[in-house]
Design brief:
mainly alpha; 0% strand; 7 helices; 107 residues; 79% helix
Length: 107
């Protein structure tokens, strides 16, 4: 990780429209595009507590993560796992919220 990359993640996270737009896309995008959106969110969550908090506030985002683990689709599974890892590593609150989400521990 570089200071420039961390600064860009913070700047994008501060732009509410971008982060909220990506989270909203999870609900509306085609299943084939879900992995790409999850990858974008994962990059924004990487070592950024503020972005993690914004992502986990959206119940739909957590539901998509859990369903991404349950699905057999490899790209979505991989990106769901990567985002979960970044959320859990960057935010205690994200970890707690994920663990308490219905279906998460069964995944």
């Amino acid at each position: 990780d570089t200071p420039q990359a961390a600064g860009m993640r913070a700047a994008i996270g501060n732009s509410t429209l971008i982060l909220e737009g990506l989270v909203s896309l999870l609900k509306a995008c085609l299943p084939a595009d879900t992995a790409v959106v999850l990858q974008c969110l994962s990059q924004l969550a990487f070592y950024n507590n503020i972005n993690c908090e914004k992502i986990i506030k959206n119940e739909n985002a957590i539901a998509v993560l859990v369903s991404g683990i349950h699905t057999g689709d490899t790209p979505q599974l991989l990106e769901s796992a990567r985002l979960i890892n970044n959320l859990a590593a960057s935010s205690e609150r994200a970890s707690a919220r994920l663990v308490h989400h219905e279906g998460f521990l069964e995944a």
